[in-house]
Amino acid sequence: MRRPTIADLAQASGVSIATINRLLHGTAQVRQDTAERVRKAAEEIQFYGLGTLLDREKNALPRYRLGFLLQQSNREIYRLFATSIADTARHWHDAHIHANVDFVDDLSPQSISDAMLRIGIQVDALAVVCADHPQISQTINTLRERGVPVIAFITDLSAPNKAGYVGTDNWKLGRTAAYLIANMVSGSGKIATFIGNHRYQCQDISDASFRSYIREHASHMTVLDACLTHEEANAAHDIVDELLSTEPDLVGLYVIGGGISGVLRAIRELPDERRAKIRIVCRDVGTEARKGLNEGLIAAALCHPRDRTSHELIDAMLEAIGQGQQSSIIQRVVPFEIITPENV
Description:
Elements: H1 6-13, H2 17-25, H3 32-45, H4 50-59, E1 63-71, H5 76-90, E2 96-104, H6 109-120, E3 125-128, H7 134-145, E4 150-153, E5 164-167, H8 170-184, E6 189-195, H9 201-217, E7 221-223, E8 227-228, H10 233-246, E9 250-255, H11 260-268, H12 272-275, E10 279-282, H13 287-294, E11 300-303, H14 306-323, E12 330-333, E13 337-339
Parallel strand pairs: 1-2, 1-3, 3-4, 4-5, 5-12, 6-7, 6-8, 6-9, 9-10, 10-11
Antiparallel strand pairs: 11-13
């Protein structure tokens, strides 16, 4: 069987022989859709220069530098997201993406703003996880003026000049958590919610919608004032320890922010009979949460699907770059996963 020629490839792909030569020798630019059509035809007829065409097509892809500012390098959930983002960027199909993933351990607005500005001068777009604060809004304005769109990631921001938001519907998430606890507990009792910082919109909205569901569908239960953990496991442990000593009818814990390892440590210190009466729902699905699920201490974890969220985030950032200075805000709501001891 004779080897397919350049003329055969031109006929199979519907382009001229000159276009095939330009692609093979890289002597001039060829439209990306044309290059892709030629490459597909080369695969079908088993053209001898397929490897060269693949290289030409890959080199013709646009290149972007994307920045990702995550929090607390010691938190497993953010390290897992960093890995997922890097993997997603590495395998992006229609662009070369360099992912600049960084962490900020000092969560003060000034520290986060400084990090955003530092990364912002190196990238085409920036995604950030942070608490909502006027100083952050001002930094987003500054970056927008420099042509760098900022996407809020996981938790939304009120900044009017943000480019968009990628994350879960936190109103639905909070009501789902309340539904689970209310239907797992028989009779009345008290429920405590744990927030890392009231300025995280995702946490505050989840807390509000949790209370909304209980008022509407489980008024026989009482939700205590939100407990502030500052995302610290030891603080969460001490709060749970005190609640257990002062609230004998405590039946549920909704851990919205960080600190699940401290909560579990306090629960493990309880006698079996008391422990069995408390239902825990959390938003984390790291090693500690998985251990708690496997032990039956956590009833459910409501969390972001990491790979899908990373894909939606990068896609939204590329869309924001393409929009330029247009004012439309991109919204990518990612359905959350419900993980229980039976499907962990």
